[in-house]
Each structure stands twice: as C-alpha cells, then as structure tokens.
Amino acid sequence: MELRPILSTLRRHKTTAWLLILEIALTCAIVCNAVFMINHRLQHMHMSTGIDEHALVQIQLAEVTPSPDIYARAREDLAVLRQVPGVQAVALVNQLPLGGSSSNASIKLDPEQRQPTLASVGTYFGENLAQTMGVRLLTGRHLRPDEVLDADLVMKALATGDKEVLAPVTVITQAMAQRLWPGADALGKTVYVGPVGVRVVGVVADLARANAYDDATAHYSMILPVFMGAGKDQSYLIRTRPQDRQAVLKAAVAALKQADPKRVVTEQRTYDEVRHKFFENDRAMAGILVGAIAALLIVTALGIVGLASFWVAQRRRTIGVRRALGATRRNILNYFQTENFLLATIGIALGMALAYAINLFLMLHYELPRLPAIYFPVGAIALWLIGQLAVLGPALRAAAVPPVVATRSV
Fold first, then answer.
1. How far, in Å, CA of 349 to CA of 197, rounded?
2. What DSSP string runs through 179-214?
3. How far apart (Å, rounded) are the C-alpha atoms in residues 172 and 175?
4. Is residue 244 part of a domain?
5. Domain membership of residue 239 as a residue range
6. Number of H helices and number of E strands within the chain?
7. Each residue of 262-308: pLDDT tens digit?
8. Burial of 162 (0-12, 13-18, 19+ CB in 10 A)
9. CA 352 from chain center: how many Å?
C-alpha cells in the first residue's frame, strides 16, 4: 500500500485528522497511567502482613464503668479467653496490621541526632504478641514474659530515669533492620525511641504497620514489651484454627460477657474482615479507573467509527473510480486500515509523551511511582487493535460499494 495517496487525502482533511489524533493521544496517556495505577493498587492490596491472617479473630470491648485496675482486668480477660475451646493463643494488642488506627514512633541510631533515621515506625505493645499473630522469627528470640512491664511502670521509669526497672528490648522486622543497618546483623544493636535506648533481641520476617498506606515504610515495625491494660484502644487477638474462627469468636464473646455482662462488645471480627475493610478505598479506586478506561476506549472507538463512516460517505466517487481502475475490495479495505493505522500511530506517539508528563506530575504531587516503560507498548498495542477493529465496519462497507453505483454518485 502506497502512503502518498493517503497522506494527500489527510492533508485535505487536516482539522478532522488532528481531532482524531488528539483524541487517541489523550486516551493513550490516560489509559497508560490508569492501568499503571490499577496495577499499583492491586499490588498494594496483596501486601503481605507477616501474620497468620486466616487463623485470627479480634474482640474489642468498652467499659460502661472503667475498671480501677486496667491491668488486672486485662489479665482476667486473657485467662478467661484461654479457657475457651479452640483458642490456641491470645494476646492483648494496641493495634493490628492494616487495622488503620495506629501507634507510631520515630527512631534514631544516636540520641544526639537532630533528625530521626526513621520518621515513623509502627510500635506494637503486648505480651506473647508475635507468637499469637504467627509472626515468623528469623534470628534471635521473641520477647520473654519477664521482660514485659505494665505501661504505667514504664512511664514512671522513663520519667525518673530508673534504669533498674527499665531495661527495654525489642523485636523488629527484617525490612526495618536492613534499612537501619544494611548488610549487618541487627541483633544486639540499639535504637532510640525518644531518649530511651532499646536493644534488638530478635528479627522477624515481616509485620506490616497498622497504617500501611506507603509501600516504602509499610513493613517498618517493632514490638516492645509493654502491657497496656484493658482500655478502649486495646483489643484481644485470638489465634485458632481457620475452620473454627466463627465458632471460637462466638464462644469467646459469650465468655467475656459472662465474666462481666455490663461491658459492651464494640468489635468482633475475623482478621479477613480487617483486611477487607482496610482496602475498601483501593477497590473503589480500581473500579472507578476500570470504568474510566472502558468509557475512554468506547468513546475513542466510536470516534474512529464516526470519522471513518464520514470519510467513506465523502469518498464514494473516489472509491468508485479506484474500483473501476482495477482496485479490489481488499485494496479498499487496506487503504482505510492503513490510513487509520497512521493516525493511530501519530496519536499514540503524542500520547506516550503526554503519559510521561502526567506521570511526572503524579510523582511530584501524589507520590506515585515512576511509570514503567512496559506500559507504553501495552497501551500502544491496545489502541492499535481498537483502531483497526473500529475502522473495520466502515472499511468493509466501502469495499462493498459496486464500481458502477459509486461512479454515478455525485
């Protein structure tokens, strides 16, 4: 197929051709970035938490009349829950991975630093917490029960500087260890939470933060040996067999209500429900973007169909002359497909440049990662295919026009 007749025709219809090119360019730019954002959201939704998600249930209580001793109350509740059939382990937690509500701290390697090494690290407090969650220990050890102190005692020791009482240790995630000491063993190292030096005694494979919105810092977490006591911000985490979760959850709530009928259960759910709730916005965004992509592609396809149909109607006499001079139906079909391919190619080239510019804007203002180059050929192939399919109907109608009928059309 010679390109000269096609280019000559397009020069006579510059405005129409450029409108279609700009439509394809805009569609290409938006589709490339939208598909990337969908994939980014899907990857985020499949984030590993490092815990045995399908074996955990959560119960949160509210006291009508606050207990005078929140630590005794929490230990009584833990003892009650351990007696529930099917309960393998139980812990009092201040937050859950992907739980949304979070407790965080800044970390320094030297107490004299002006700026923290890590601005925000998820801080988990509790006894038997890692074992209940099913967190995998890589090196070192878990926190021992004799190292866990009540929160009030910890705060008093911090205020007085009583190091006889306070000898803090911690277990941190592998991601946090590698960030603080790249290529080195973290065991025995000290990090500073405020003015307090905390010695690392264990490293776990993973433990996602409660507010794991930023993928770069989502796995910077540490477990501290602090017992918070029963309160509105604490909840009980129970480990059981996955198939027993609903039965154990129901029995555990009944046992706690029997121990104190005046308390109100504010939350009772499996961890799968926790994860599902955390990613609600991601699913909604992905759905909106899929709808936007579909709408754009449909509008672009309709634009190509409309323009091709208009040009077929305008060129009936020309088509007839070409057919009379020996052009076959395949020649006419190839002509329109080649013409559309050229317009689509120009539009896609402009669209790729625009897609890169949009991605730079999103990186600057919304902290989106750089758009990988693989999305450009994927977007180009998709638009080429849509363009060829969209123009096929009008092109077949043009190829089907008999030479005699076409030459008599004025």
1. 56
2. HHSTTS--TT-EEEETTEEEEEEEEES----TTTTS
3. 8
4. yes
5. 64-94+229-262
6. 13, 13
7. 888 899 999 999 999 999 999 999 999 999 999 988 988 888 888 88
8. exposed
9. 25
As a whole number of angstroms, the distance between CA 136 and CA 152 comes to: 30
**Residues 330, 382 within the same domain:** yes
Q: Is the pTM of this model over 0.85?
A: no
Residue 302 resides in a domain:
yes
Instruction: Assess whether pLDDT exceeds 90 at residue 16.
Output: no
Each residue's pLDDT tens digit, 61-82 = 887 777 778 899 999 999 999 9
316 shares a domain with 196: no
CA distance 312 to 332: 10
Rounded CA-CA distance 306/145 in Å is 74
User: CB within 8 A of 50, min separation 6: which ones?
Assistant: 97, 133, 135, 136, 173, 204, 205, 206, 207, 208, 219
> Do 247 and 338 fall into the same domain?
no
- 57 in a structural domain: no
257: enclosing H helix or E strand: helix 245-259
Q: How many structural domains compose the chain?
A: 3
Domain for residue 271, yes or no?
no
CA-based R_g, the chain, Å? 32
Q: Are 337 and 389 members of one domain?
A: yes
**DSSP secondary structure string, 361-381?**
HHHHHH-PPP--TTHHHHHHH
Residues 135 and 173 occupy one common structural domain: yes
List Cα–Cα distances, 353 to 148, 295, 362, in angstroms. 57, 22, 14
- Both tokens assigned to 52: 């045995």
d(CA 406, CA 410): 8
402: its two tokens: 């008999």
Amino acid letter, residue 309: S
Tokens 């000290």 found at: 190
Q: Are residues 111 and 149 in the same domain?
A: yes
Token pair 């180009």 in the structure block, residue: 380
If you search the block for the tokens 């730079």, which residue do you land on?
A: 360
How far is residue 262's CA from residue 100's CA, in Å, rounded to a whole number? 28
CB 24 within 8 A of CB 348: yes
Question: pLDDT tens digit string along 141-164?
Answer: 999 998 888 888 877 766 666 655
Backbone torsions φ then ψ of 106, nearest 5 degrees: -90, 150
